[in-house]
Write a structure and sequence with these properties.
Layout lengths: L1 H39 L4 H16 L7 H23 L12 H9 L2 E2 L5 H31 L3 H4 L1 H31 L2 E2 L12 H8 L2 H20 L8 H24 L6 H23 L7 H26 L2 H33 L1
């Protein structure tokens, strides 16, 4: 681990932070170009051709970053979220198509899973109470991440199965905390709210509940107009309206699989094994079967929640251990993330020590 820490520090010192600043400067410059181009270029193919170079640029920029946190989140924000939002913007749909949106809000809306804050009194009261609950929730989850990081020191005693279960919670807590930090920044600068990425996915009672309402909610809302709704309209012409959602659901999982493979390539820079694809295709097929059964029984029978809940969460964790986490291990995701935590801690410690020494040296000279 010590060698990995020094390697991470070396990477950061040799330009990761510098590259991160340059990448995001390029992102904001390109999005500013899209913002002003949208004022003059009509929607449809002309606007799509106008933003197409930016789409290509956003696929290339994550290749200039190598750390799990800076590189991984940048890839998710621009190669996936921003590109999909720009595709909607080209056809005058989605959050970027509102002509009243200012340039700063356009930039934040494009890059992050953001929604504009509602200013009604009732919603403000509800958000205030929810914000207090969220603050406590994030504090607990941050503490749990610390416990998880310490648990990795005892991997030999814990065993591989339990370690992979810990991976599940590490990824969930880590992503949610990072996005909460971005939400705080957006709220402070522009008074806008990030869409919640998660809604207690461990309480899911079905795959439809897990993927549609609890896990990665913003991605679901992006995939719906980009993939689900066009395929739904197309399939409605070939089958009964009742069954038209089934191919649309599967197509959505297919696109999600492709985007996850891309993100993992950015993280590891290794040739994909397509286990991630098989994970999402398996869940797509299972969700299609689940929806078909629900339509067939039409609410006449269902599992009680105390049965369906553990079955759903168990299925997600088991298939994740089988198909998802091997790719994470292959790109050394956890080891690199832990090394980055340690490197950040060492950096903060060194800065703190330097700040304490400065007044001492000044007193000595005096």
């Amino acid at each position: 681990m010590e060698g990995q820490i020094f390697e991470v520090i070396r990477v950061w010192m040799e330009g990761e932070l510098s590259n991160f600043i340059k990448v995001w400067a390029a992102v904001f410059t390109a999005l500013s170009y899209c913002y002003f181009a949208g004022k003059f270029v009509p929607k449809g193919i002309p606007r799509l051709l106008t933003v197409f170079p930016v789409l290509c640029l956003f696929l290339n920029l994550p290749l200039h970053l190598h750390t799990m946190h800076l590189g991984g989140m940048t890839a998710f924000f621009i190669a996936w979220l921003a590109n999909f939002k720009l595709l909607m913007f080209a056809f005058n749909t989605g959050p970027l198509s509102d002509p009243s949106v200012s340039l700063p809000r356009f930039l934040f809306l494009a890059c992050f899973p953001i929604k504009i804050q509602q200013n009604t009194r009732n919603r403000s009261h509800k958000k205030s109470k929810k914000g207090q609950q969220s603050l406590l929730s994030y504090a607990i989850k941050t503490l749990l991440v610390g416990v998880i990081v310490r648990a990795y020191d005892y991997t030999d005693q814990i065993g591989p199965i339990l370690i992979q279960i810990i991976y599940c919670f590490h990824i969930y807590f880590g992503i949610e905390i990072i996005l909460a930090m971005v939400a705080a920044m957006a709220r402070a600068l522009l008074g806008i709210e990030l869409e919640p990425q998660f809604n207690e996915p461990y309480l899911s009672t079905s795959l439809q509940d897990f993927w549609g309402r609890r896990w990665n909610i913003m991605v679901t809302s992006i995939l719906r107009p980009i993939v689900y709704e066009p395929v739904l309209s197309l399939s409605a012409g070939f089958t009964r309206r009742q069954w038209a959602p089934l191919p649309a659901v599967f197509a959505t999982f297919l696109v999600s699989a492709a985007m996850h493979e891309l993100i993992f390539y950015y993280l590891g820079r290794v040739v994909p094994t397509f286990e991630i694809t098989w994970f999402f295709l398996l869940h797509g097929v299972c969700l299609v079967v689940e929806i078909a059964i629900k339509k067939a029984v039409n609410g006449r029978w269902r599992f009680p929640q105390y049965v369906s809940g553990p079955l759903t969460v168990g299925f997600v964790i088991t298939t994740g251990m089988w198909l998802f986490f091997p790719e994470l291990i292959r790109c050394r995701g956890v080891d690199r993330a832990l090394a980055e935590y340690a490197a950040l801690g060492a950096f903060v410690k060194d800065v703190g020590g330097a700040l304490r020494l400065k007044p001492l040296n000044a007193t000595t000279v005096a």
